Amino acid sequence: MLYPFGKIHSSKVNNTFITTYDNISPHSYSILKSIYFICSNLIPPQIIDKIFDVAPIEEVVGEYVTLKRAGANYKGLCPFHDDKNASMSVSPTKGIYKCFSCGKGGNIFQFIMEHEGLSYPLAIKHLADRYNDRCMDFTDEEINKMYADIVKDIEQKVK
Q1: Does 4 reside within a domain?
Q2: What is the pLDDT of residues 65-82, one digit of tens each?
Q3: pLDDT tens by residue, 92-105
Q4: Residue 41: pLDDT over 70
Q5: Which of 22, 46, 95, 154 has the fewest other C-beta atoms within 10 Å?
Q6: Up-side HSE of residue 112: CA atoms within 13 Å toward CB?
Q7: How many domains does one find in the chain?
Q8: Which residues on neighbouring strands pair with residue 6, listed in sequence order?
Q9: Residue 115: CATH number of its domain
Q10: What are phi and psi of 21, to 5 degrees?
């Protein structure tokens, strides 16, 4: 691929993509590094949606907290503070958790981010690895197309 700011070479070595640039200014190089960092943290929305579909919040939270049925929801001790009164509620229909004592709440990714101290992309990877047998039924071609669509979208926005 030839760009106005130089030629980009990408190759895969030991399951890691290596990108090199020819004839590029230091300023353009820093811009490209920023774009590469952003793109490397992008996860196709189809994968995120699939994880939401196959990883019920009560199951994800239930791996860390003992939950008890309370009507349509579940209740348990909040793992984010010294909870004595089962102040955390998990709603399977809404796909969220909420502690009414400390105020923490969110979806499955936010729970994993908070509990495991992970970034958003790593929380997604954590759940994708955990539910791999149920959620990674995408072919390599489908995943490559998802990333190509993301890059195409970014290129259109940059123009």
Answers
A1: yes
A2: 999 999 999 999 999 999
A3: 999 999 999 999 99
A4: no
A5: 22
A6: 25
A7: 2
A8: 3
A9: 3.90.580.10
A10: -130, 135
